[in-house]
Design brief:
With about 375 residues, the chain is α/β, with parallel strands linked by helices. Helix content is about 40%, strand content about 15%. It has 13 helices and 13 strands. α4 links the parallel β2 and β3. The longest helix has 24 residues.
Length: about 375
């Protein structure tokens, strides 16, 4: 079976993990954690990056940092993973879903203003498939209405919007290093990107269970104590060691994924030109990271048949999110503002194809041939 995903392995990870073990320091904020954080700050021109156990933890940390309270409202797309909403629901907020754009599957920036009320605190753009949302419009709205922007950049490490790294444009960005992402910290992992200097000190405190332990480690205070609300949002250093091997090879991984992405695009273009399927759209001035490759079929019925046919051919192709507003929790904790014109319709047509760093060329050609056979 050709899997949908396989975690990236470049070969240096075991050595770095052994070095972390030999150091005697396996908890968070040790040597490899600092290396990874500095790499991310330097390469993405970020104010401050703090590694976390997951992107879920990063989003929850962002909600704490922004003092989200019961009754607050947070705007986001419904076509996203549950963690995007959960982080704010845990603080008592109401989630307000708006429709997506059918071209990029990202939040429709033209629908956000109509969803803003006196209770709105945050806009959460989700950069689906590593393709940027229309951030100029979103940031202008945030400025006009005095709102914060938290970028869910779980899928967008190494992607750019007009030359700027995704995750560094809003006041906070959230990355994922889960095994399904382009770069992994050994299975789980994430990072919180703090782009507002005024939030950095408190972010460190919240991440360290509400204590000023980070200042203590840097020698800025002679003891540390409880200062604020917080939780344990540190990545273990042995995980950071695995991630360090991946970050060292970031350009190599990125280029290989882009090659695979373009192979799919070129190989399936004749079917798209014939109207059999639709291919992803990358707007001008954006640089994506080939996080995933999807196609769109006629409807959900054809998608079921397509996935079944590929599975019979030994290929794992999968759908993606069920829109959150149609889920039991989404109906309870949120509401959809305006018309669901594209969210449900487009999500039911979408199929993701196998794409991962260590994918052999022959496997990818087998996928392309199986798709051509389905439509023949």
């Amino acid at each position: 079976m050709i899997p949908f995903n396989s975690p990236a392995i470049v070969g240096t990870e075991p050595g770095y993990m052994q070095a972390a073990m030999s150091s005697g320091k396996l908890s968070g904020d040790n040597g490899f954690t600092r290396r990874c954080q500095m790499w991310l700050e330097d390469n993405f021109t970020a104010q401050r990056v703090l590694l976390t156990p997951s992107c879920t933890a990063s989003l929850e940390m962002a909600a704490l940092l922004l003092d989200i309270k019961p009754g607050d409202e947070v705007i986001m797309p419904s076509f996203t993973f549950v963690s995007t909403a959960n982080a704010f629901v845990l603080r008592g907020a109401k989630v307000v879903f708006v429709d997506i754009r059918p071209d990029t599957m990202n939040i429709d920036e033209t629908k956000i203003a109509a969803a803003i009320t006196a209770k709105t605190r945050v806009i959460v753009p989700v950069h689906y498939a590593g393709v940027a949302c229309e951030m100029d419009t979103i940031m202008a709205l945030a400025h006009d209405y005095n709102l914060c922007v938290v970028e869910d950049a779980a899928q967008a490490v190494m992607s750019l919007y007009k030359g700027r790294a995704l995750g560094t444009i809003g006041c906070i960005g959230c990355f994922s290093f889960h095994e399904t992402k382009n770069y992994t910290a050994g299975g789980e992992g994430g990072a919180t990107v703090i782009n507002d200097p005024q939030l950095i000190e408190r972010a460190e405190i919240i991440r360290e269970k509400g204590t000023n332990r980070s200042q203590f480690i840097r020698g800025e205070v002679d003891k540390y104590t409880w200062h604020d609300i917080g939780s344990s949002y540190l990545m273990a250093d042995i995980q950071a060691a695995y991630l360090w091997g991946q970050l060292e090879a970031a350009q190599q991984i990125n280029q290989r994924r882009l090659t695979l992405w373009h192979n799919y695009y070129d190989g399936l273009a004749p079917l798209a030109n014939a109207g059999a399927l639709e291919l992803p759209v990358i707007p001008d001035a954006l640089s994506h990271n080939a996080h995933l490759f999807y196609i769109k079929l006629r409807d959900i019925t054809q998608r079921i048949a397509f996935i079944s046919a590929l599975r019979s051919a030994g290929i794992m192709a999968v759908s993606h999110y069920i829109p959150l507003h149609s889920s039991p929790a989404g109906e309870h904790f949120g509401r959809f503002n305006g018309e669901d014109r594209f969210t449900t319709r487009e999500s039911e047509r979408l199929v993701r194809l196998p794409l991962f760093y260590n994918m052999p060329d022959c496997d990818q050609q087998a996928v392309i041939l199986a798709i051509r056979k389905f439509f023949s």
